[in-house]
Amino acid sequence: MADDHGKDGKPHKKHKKHHADHPHEEHHEGCPEWMVSFADNVCLMMGFFVIMLAMNMKPAHGGSGEGPQDGNTSYTPPSALLDAAIAIREGFKNPVNMNSAAPEDQPLIRRLQERKGTGRASTTGQSGPTDSVTSVRTSDYYSLGGVVPFNDGAVELSGAGERAVAEIADKLKGPRFVIEVRGHVSAVEAAAGVDVAMSVSHRRALAVARGLNILGIPWSRMRVVACADGDRVTPIAYDEAGHRANQRVEVLVTRELEATDPFLRETAKPSTAGNPASAPVPVAPAGGH
Questions:
Q1: Most Cβ neighbours (<10 Å): which of 24, 96, 159, 277?
Q2: pLDDT tens digit string along 203-213?
Q3: Residues 97 and 186 in one domain
Q4: Please, where are the H alpha helices in the chain?
Q5: What's the farthest any 2 CA atoms get from each other in the chain?
C-alpha cells in the first residue's frame, strides 16, 4: 500500500513506543480499589446489624431451646449478655434509665440493681431492732458506737443495758479516738425540772462510762455529756414507746485523738558522749602535787 512505503519504494518500519523512560500509571479493567474497600466495609456493617437483629428477634414458634418463648415473659437473658448491653449503651452515651417503663429495659434495670446491691453497710454494728445508724443526726462523728436504753427514771444499767455496753465496748477497743457518752431523758422525765433532767441524764451517762471502763475503755478516751431532753430521737412522743426511745445514752466516736498525759512523757536527756567539754573534770588525789 502507498501509505506503507516511502519515496524509495521501501516499506516504512513501525516504531514501538517504549515507556521505560516515562512510566505511566497502569489502569486495569473494572472499578478502582477504593470502591472495593468501601463495598467490603458496607458488607461487614450490614452483617453486624443482621447478627444484632437476629439476636433480638423472637422465634416464630415455640421450641425446646433456651431463650424467650411465646407467652413467656419471665425469661431473663444471661448476666454476661446483660452486662455487655449495659456497657454498649454506656459507651454510646445512652445509659439505662432506672426510671424507664419500657419492657425491653426491665432486664437491664434489674441487672443494674443486682450489681449495685441493697445498699447495706459492709461493717458490723451494734445489734438491735433497726438496720440503720442509731445516732440522731449526721455530724462530724463516725457512725461507730451504739445506744444503751434505760427504763423510766432509772439511772442504773438494766440487763439489756449491760449487754449493750459489753457489745459496744468490744467494738471500741483499740482506736485512740475520743468517745463521747451522752445521757438523755424523755420529756416526761424532764417535766420534773431542768436540774432533775440534767442530773438524771448525767448519772445515766456516767453509769455507761463506768461500764465501758470496767470492760477496758480508759477514762482518758471518754467524755461524759449530759443533754437532758434537748436531743430527742422522737421529737414529739405520743405514747410510752416514743418516750422510751428518748431515755437513752448514746456512745459516739469522735474524730479527736486521745490527749497524751504530760506527766507520763519521758523527758529527753541530752547525751554527753563524744563531747569533751561536758565530761566531768577529774579530781586530784589528796596530798598529790
A1: 96
A2: 999 999 999 99
A3: no
A4: 33-56, 79-91, 106-116, 159-172, 187-190, 194-214, 240-246
A5: 158
Cross-strand bridge partners of residue 128: none
Between vectors from CA 37 to CA 34 and to CA 39, what angle results, nearest 5°? 110
185 by Cβ neighbours in 10 Å (0-12 / 13-18 / 19+) ranks as buried
As a whole number of Å, the CA-based R_g of the chain is 44
How many angstroms separate the Cα of 142 from the Cα of each of 138, 139, 243?
9, 8, 26
Q: Assign residue 210 the CATH number of its domain.
A: 3.30.1330.60
Is residue 169 classed as helix, strand or coil in its secondary structure?
helix
Same domain, 161 and 219: yes
Domain count, the chain: 2
Write the pLDDT tens digit of every residue in 170-215.
988 877 889 999 999 999 999 999 999 999 999 999 999 999 999 9
Compute the C-alpha angle 256/129/140, nearest 5°.
Answer: 20
Q: Which of 253, 257, 237, 255 is nearest to 245 (CA)?
A: 237
Residue 12: all three cell numbers together:
516504512
The amino acid present at 230, given as its one-letter code, is: G
Q: Which domain holds residue 250?
A: 145-260
Task: Give the whole-angstrom CA distance, residue 237 versus residue 258.
Answer: 37
Domain membership of residue 256 (yes or no) is: yes
Instruction: Give percent of the chain above pLDDT 70.
Output: 64
Task: List pLDDT tens digits, range 30-63.
Answer: 677 777 788 888 888 888 888 887 777 655 544 4
**Is the domain of 104 the same as that of 164?**
no
Share of the chain above pLDDT 90, in %: 27
Grid coordinates given for 116: 449495685
Buried b / exposed e over 62-89, threshold 16 CB at 10 Å, is eeeeeeebeeeeeeebeeeebeebbeee
